[in-house]
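User: Second chain of the day. Same drill as before.
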Amino acid sequence: MPLQNRVDPWGVLFRTTARGTMMGNRGPSLHNDRREILRPFRGERWITCLLEFRGRQRTVMRPGYYTELFFLDEAVSFAAGHRPCAECRRERFNAFREAWGLSQRIHRENSLRAPAMDAELHRARIDGQGRKVTYRAAWDSLPDGAFVEIDGSGYLLWEGALRLWSPEGYRKMVRPSAGEVAGVLTPKPVVAVFRHGYTPAVHPSALLL
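Assistant: Same format as last time:
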């Protein structure tokens, strides 16, 4: 049986045989010695990493170590509430931090450090009861890379249209009426980062529709 370590645009951990293009974690171990998920997160540091970095080899869900999570692409990881890792994705982390500062007009170095960004992201992705934070907006008012929910399905906004997400890739393209309102899955601070120059990487299937 596949491990429960894939992440959907709502931030939910689920099982699938499909492979992702990015890895990440949510702090210390989320699993037990039987590689069963016990909790959805631990702490505010939710990051997105490369699948391979400096030849490091890992046993997935090794007892006592952090839980490796996998995403279809970077856009999904952002919708779930993650941000780029400052070690294996340093260039992308710096680009994210620069756009973050521009989006909030922040010029104080302490406010641009990872812990400060993580704390604000956590408030924007999870409420006091551990539920995902969403809000409503017209789908065509959002930047490329944002995710919305329509009729219970997740859609990626890309190049003026919506792409239907699935664990294996994006399946079809739709164009709702202009101004149609949808639930936004990507946290508000991340949407602001997209507006200020950061464009997330997307799965190749999004470019084929």
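Residues 135-186+202-207 form one domain.

User: Great, on to the next one.
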